[in-house]
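#data-curation
PF: Archiving a pair of folding outputs for the training set. Convention for this channel: one message per protein, sequence first, structure tokens after, nothing in between. First:
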Amino acid sequence: MLIIFGGIAGVSIATNGMELMKLMPTLYKKAMSPEFPDQPAVVRQLVGYAEKARKEGLLALEPEIASVDDVFTKKGLQLVVDGTDPDLVREVLEVEIEAMEARHRAAQKLFKDAGGYAPTIGVLGTVMGLLHVMQLLDKPQLLGPAIAGAFMATLYGVGSANVIFLPVAGRLGVLTLAEVQTRTMVIEGILAIQAGENPRVIAERLLGFLAPAEREAASQSGPNLRAVPDAEAQAA
């Protein structure tokens, strides 16, 4: 275990740096979280802002900003209230998304690298164990436990790669895609609010980001949220 997990930690630090390596427990906990962004709730929130802005003007959204929990949405609304050019609003928010994706790619790479190195280090540990076995050829009673111990290294290496490191990297990638989609939806909603579009039109646009089941759930939560059928929904 010292050879395998110590070796994996060493090569991961050499490849990705100590600072990122320290985040591995936090990233693992994040990957195990079953929570995804609540996109229907985001749609309802944005349509609510659209209705308020439609009735009272964009400046009426300023008191709402303090109560917004999501930092990304808060930044977008603040830019709109401040009268920022729509193209600049999109550019600023898209830079935020790109920076987030870069951070997430680095986190995924940490686990992918560990998963890539682990089997090889496991084989290395097995070879080291077999070298010790060669010294016990004159003691047949010790060969069984020694060989078993040698192959445990391969088990640890291959097992940790395929049960821990690579699945966690994949899970982090799925969470990243969900967050990118949610933030893209927020950008479209905020720019539509700034353009003064009808809340129903905004709802139609934002519901297009949701899966059919989520569209139906969101449409039942407010009069301006109507589920939009698509080929997938009709097939179901």
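PF: Second:
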Amino acid sequence: MRHKKICKQRAAELRDEALFKDPPPKEDCPICFLPMLQKLVCCVSLPPATITSVPIWDFAEANEELAHMEMEEYFSCCGKGICEGCVNSFRKSGNIEKCPFCNSERGGKTDEEQLEELRKRMAANDPGAIFLLANYYYYGWAGLQQDQTKAIKLYIKAADLGSSMAHCNLGKVYYEGGDLTKAKFHYEAAAMAGLDVARLNIGSTESSSGNMDRAVKHWTIAASAGNYEAMHAVQVLFEEGIVSRDAIESTLAAYNNSCVEMRSEAREAYIRMQLAATISTSLVSHNIV
């Protein structure tokens, strides 16, 4: 019995060593070779964060629609995920209905044709295609009937093939379903693969459970990777006296460096376009124009 307890304790220690070590770098966009990020606002050009201010957090709070927009677009013709900055630049050059990577024609395809492309990529064990098809079933997109059971099976398959986003979505599904053990497993798998939004979620879970030391570790790692929500959380904890000045200053330096690495004029132009579109929509909805 004592030997079993020691082995279990050592397994937990090894798990923590893997969980809290520096995550791998983000994958690059295959066109601009800048780090790929999940949310659009993460690369908006704003002043650096300081001990008292995280400008991107304030920007996201003021532009809620923008804060939820994705920065990566998956193309089933070649199986590439491309940042919206590159996609937008390519389309502005006159290539409106072509893939920015392989230059294949994309216009005029029906939902059925797009789904057929996805299934071909799925047959080739492309985790990106499987993850996207899972989303279609989970939310009932692209003309598919909503089927969350089928979606979960596809998320699991994509996760087994290395999709950190699939792990993250499974974490959310299991968390909302009350299975915290499975939720934790998948969130941690995504975090160890370098997905900072999953690490942000783990930090929130640990904080809710009263494990502030672990929450701070997770938020610090996520903030260092450029996650503005985690950086804001660390800032709040500093104000509450939970995070030291030395710790927040080193985290701020890493966060600001990550933000700089993710920015480009092409990405900024895409953000400005989306911001203008949301403002225009808001004006129309309020009968101002």
